[in-house]
Amino acid sequence: MFDGAFLAKDSALGRELETELYDSGATRHMSPYQHRFIDFEAIAPKPIGAADNRTFKAVGKGSMYIDVPNRETTRCALLKDVLYAPDMGVTLISMSHIAATGCKVNFDCYGCKILDESGTLIGEIPVADGLYRVQHTKSFDYAGRVKDVFTIDELHRLMGHISHDAARDLVRKGLVLGVMIEDSPSSGVCAACEAAKTTRKPIQRYREGERTAAVGDEVHSDVWGPAPVKTLGGRRYYVSFTDHSRWTVTYLMRTKDEDFRHYQSFVALMKAHHGAAVKLRHSDQGGEYLSNEFNTYLAEQGMKRRLTVHDTPEYNGVAERLNCTLITKPSDHVRRLLEGEGTAGGRGSAGALPKGLRVMHPVEEMETAGLAEVENAVHSEELAMAAVMGDAEGLQPSLEEVRKRPDWPKWLAAINAELESLKTNDTWTVVERPPGVNVVGSKWVLRIKKDASGAIDKYKAHLVAQEYTQIHGINYFETFAPVAKIASLRLLLAITARNGWAVESFDFNSAYLNSSLDEDEVIYLEQPPQFPIKDPKAYVLHLKKVLYSLKQGGRKWYKHLCIALADLGFKRTEADFGVFYARNGPDLTVLTIHVDDCTITGSSKTLISTYKCKLGEKYPLTDLGPVSWLLGIKIL
């Protein structure tokens, strides 16, 4: 066998040329050039010993063609059962295997001659520096040898719209093979690049002109909907009209085209009750505002219209902010929306609430008739309001709201579990309130975790810090913590679908509590609201570990998790610091991190289970099994 340093892939010979050594001591054909294989099969790592006791590993096998020199010509020969050893620097051709095919091999001082069974010379390998070797310039022996010719604009598009200079450099340096660039000038600007890089001016932070001072001078309007659930009257939209004083009238609608009729009603209301005519309507460019009927009416009434620029709701801020208030605040407005009768306003109302109120209870439907019975239904109504608002997308109910809900015992259990977890992890010590120091506020964050079907999966409660009360340089320093990019997750899901890999998920319980604060990070925290340990006026919590919503919390947890994953053999990808991978022979395992939510996949389901068990030994976690819902992506 040859010296291991000569065989190593980082030798000068291996870097510059593709080399084939005809070796009488080699027991198998071996090659590091995977692109030369015409068929390939991964195998369990197989050690290959060199003369200096260096070991290479073969991880695959297959067949490949080689060009055998024969004086002035070459002959293409097929080698079968070739081992693929990526760490080797040259291809070894076993002469004993060639002889086993019936060929004759003669060695002399001039070279090595290979003859077939009839004695015809089929190859003559010259000797150089005591080695029977053949060298080729690096090339790929496959269909890609036929080079495609592209213009620089075509190559720019094919390579994901990278710059023209970068595309030329890749081809010139040999980093892109099988491609030639046509010697023609660029056509100029790429329309796709120009559109993708177009930005708009920032939204102004100051008002244009003075705020109107008289009733009817300017009315702000917007249509909201469709709502995920219809009212009892079958309505899914509402339109709002807001005057200069922020007096607001809303009308419920079944369809958007009812806006014109309700605008006429609003104009009549302003004339009848306030003696004022509407002079200017401020709205976006919704199609319901641009009909011929609407345009004719405005012209006849002498009203002007101010439309915002397309896709800039910020310039319709009064009406958009009103939508946020109406939808996220349980109020008398929501009660009327549930009923779907009459209209409701922020500080004014058109129409009256009917004498009989119908309340939808979460468990059963109750009917009331008359004002006296309405008062008796107030408590049930509040439960209904809280339940409805708790189901709204993205809404986190407050502690006061959940106390009125019928599922309060489940919320209380979640809160007690959070407090017990904090106590078990020795998160803080209770100390007397020190004078003259910054004490960070605390609050409860409550939310319902749902599965892919929308059913309730878990009630979650977190005691979090009010990070806006932290002071930089005293309570925190660095804050950045990477998470897996959505593009990485989509790519990983595509790879798993193609390869048929299992994809499973899990999340860490109270993840932030596993990381500690540095000595120079002194943080005092207010006691849990409504669940104090001692007198909250005299005592505060001195944090020893990271709590959710601390500005440095995500970074501390990420650094702690990186150390644990490195101990298990995982490496971090350079393209995305939220993606880690581990290799075990031919098997690959990939782990993505998004704060405390993790997704794991790989070619071996056994390894997936093993790694989950090892992580479970380091941190308490919840195994969610096969993934069905991932960061808003439904997995089918």
TrEMBL record:
Keyword ATP-binding listed: yes
Keywords, comma-separated and alphabetical: Aspartyl protease, ATP-binding, DNA integration, DNA recombination, DNA-directed DNA polymerase, Endonuclease, Hydrolase, Magnesium, Metal-binding, Multifunctional enzyme, Nuclease, Nucleotide-binding, Nucleotidyltransferase, Protease, RNA-binding, RNA-directed DNA polymerase, Transferase, Transposition, Viral release from host cell, Virion maturation
Reactions catalysed according to its record: DNA(n) + a 2'-deoxyribonucleoside 5'-triphosphate = DNA(n+1) + diphosphate
Domain of life, per lineage: Eukaryota
GO biological-process terms attached to the record: DNA integration; DNA recombination; proteolysis; transposition
InterPro entries, sorted: DNA/RNA_pol_sf, Integrase_cat-core, PolX-like_BBD, Retrotran_Ty1/copia-like, RNaseH-like_sf, RNaseH_sf, RVT_2
Annotated GO MF terms: aspartic-type endopeptidase activity; ATP binding; DNA-directed DNA polymerase activity; endonuclease activity; metal ion binding; RNA binding; RNA-directed DNA polymerase activity
Coiled-coil positions: none
Domain Integrase catalytic: 208-326
Keyword ATP-binding (UniProt): yes
Gene3D superfamilies listed in its UniProt record: Ribonuclease H-like superfamily/Ribonuclease H
GO CC field: nucleus
Functional description taken from the UniProt entry: The aspartyl protease (PR) mediates the proteolytic cleavages of the Gag and Gag-Pol polyproteins after assembly of the VLP.
PANTHER family (alphabetical): TRANSPOSASE, PUTATIVE-RELATED, TRANSPOSON TY4-P GAG-POL POLYPROTEIN
Identification of the protein by name: Integrase catalytic domain-containing protein
Species assigned in the record: Hermanssonia centrifuga
